[in-house]
Design a protein that fits this description.
heterodimer; A: mainly alpha; B: alpha+beta; Ubiquitin-like (UB roll); Fumarate Reductase Iron-sulfur Protein, Chain B, domain 2; 2 domains; five-stranded mixed β-sheet; two-stranded antiparallel sheet; 9 helices; about 35% helix; about 15% strand
Chain lengths: ~160, ~250
């Protein structure tokens, strides 16, 4: 006749298993400790804070885009409408708000352009284009276009 | 230089007090000691119950990843010296459930790694008599960087998205998927696309970029993910203009 040895369950009530003070713990179903992400996790490291600021400053980018479209729409309503719009924009509250938007835009643009070599892997004549050249080309394009806009404005 | 340095070590003993706590140990200070050497001193001479993983002690096996003073590092490659005068806080890697002391449960990663099929997939296998698959140095260069991953999990620990969205496939698994996608011998990109292009694939990544900063092997998982996003987007638009082509 076959005898069957009792298979240990691994529970702490099991004879032979070291007594533990925590009744929920079993050898085969360990009780993991799970850490919860605090709501201010993004203050844990400067890199995380910078990331959150980069993401948040995408809102000024959206605002600037909509603002530009709005401006074109106002312009289509005639010179008088545009004049009123410009006067409205000259209000100190608007100027202060737009100064903040500009800071956000610059922060977003700089942090974003610095990341471009991660997403762009270019090869020219079989050789990989270095990261600094990709970033440099983006800054060059940005400054070049800004220069063209300034030149048009100066020519008015 | 001091004679000793204090280590505040995260302890979690589920069968004991049940709640984690920090225990302070004073270990001899040596210029050439790594954090792992200090932990081994504790285990050998002060408290044999301290649990942590390690194996090669030379930055190859990827077992000894822990959080030291808030940064995910390989403890075998991290000197005590920069943290003087201490105390040095040693914790398990963030983002993983803790089994005991400094030991995290990495099962989740293993499952995700299998999902991205990190092996060479061929539509038709060549028989050995037909010879090996040849590859030029340039073709190898396309994926070599991603092949250096040692699965140390530092990138997962550095990624806040993985902690916030546990479904995220994660940096190392995506970098390893790209390692095979970019291999000229592989034909499995379409199979991996199903996993990588879903929300929990590359699109969960918001490009914090810390995974590439902490990587001890310079694998650059953040770059791998962003490149895949570009490829997946281009593929989607190609599928719109090319009837019958799936994204």
């Amino acid at each position: 006749m076959k005898s069957q040895a009792r298979i240990p369950t691994g529970r702490i009530s099991d004879p032979g298993y070291p007594q533990a003070s925590n009744p929920e713990y079993t050898r085969h179903h360990p009780r993991w400790y799970r850490r919860h992400m605090p709501i201010f996790w993004w203050l844990r490291k400067f890199a995380y804070t910078k990331f959150i600021l980069r993401e948040l400053t995408s809102q000024p980018v959206m605002y600037a885009t909509l603002f530009l479209l709005g401006k074109v729409w106002v312009l289509s309503r005639g010179p008088e409408a545009y004049e009123i719009f410009v006067q409205w924009l000259s209000h100190p509250a608007f100027l202060a708000f737009h100064a903040l938007v500009l800071v956000g835009l610059l922060f977003h643009t700089v942090t974003w352009l610095n990341l471009t070599p991660k997403a762009l892997v270019l090869r020219v004549a079989g050789r990989k284009v270095p990261g600094w050249a990709i970033v440099g080309a983006h800054y060059g394009a940005w400054l070049g276009l800004s220069g063209v806009i300034l030149w048009i404005l100066a020519g008015r | 230089m001091p004679d000793t340095v204090k280590l505040e070590v995260f302890r979690y003993r589920p069968e004991g007090e049940g709640e984690p706590l920090y225990e302070t140990f004073e270990v001899p200070y040596r210029d050439e000691w790594m954090v792992l050497d200090a932990l081994n001193q504790i285990k050998d001479h002060q408290d044999g119950t301290l649990s942590y993983r390690w194996a090669c002690r030379m930055g190859v096996c990827g077992s000894c990843g822990m959080t030291v003073n808030g940064e995910p590092v390989l403890t075998c490659a991290t000197y005590l010296e920069p943290f003087l005068p201490g105390p040095i806080r040693v914790e398990p890697l963030h983002g993983f459930p803790v089994i005991r002391d400094l030991v995290g449960d990495l099962e989740d990663f293993v499952g995700k790694l299998q999902r991205v099929k990190p092996w060479i997939i061929r539509e038709e296998e060549r028989s050995p008599s037909e010879g090996e698959y040849l590859q030029t140095p340039e073709e190898m260069d396309a994926y070599k960087r991603y092949s250096m991953c040692i699965n140390c999990m530092l990138c997962y620990a550095a990624c806040p998205i993985y902690e916030l969205e546990p479904g995220f496939i994660g940096p190392a698994a995506i970098a390893l998927a790209q390692r095979y996608n970019l291999d000229s011998r592989d034909e499995g990109a379409r199979e991996r696309h199903e996993v990588l292009a879903e929300h929990e694939g590359v699109w969960s990544c918001t490009f914090v970029g810390e995974c590439s900063i902490v990587c001890p092997k310079d694998v650059d998982p953040a770059g791998a993910i962003q490149r895949y996003k570009v490829d997946a987007t281009l593929d989607f638009f190609r599928s719109l203009v090319t009837p019958g082509r799936s994204p």
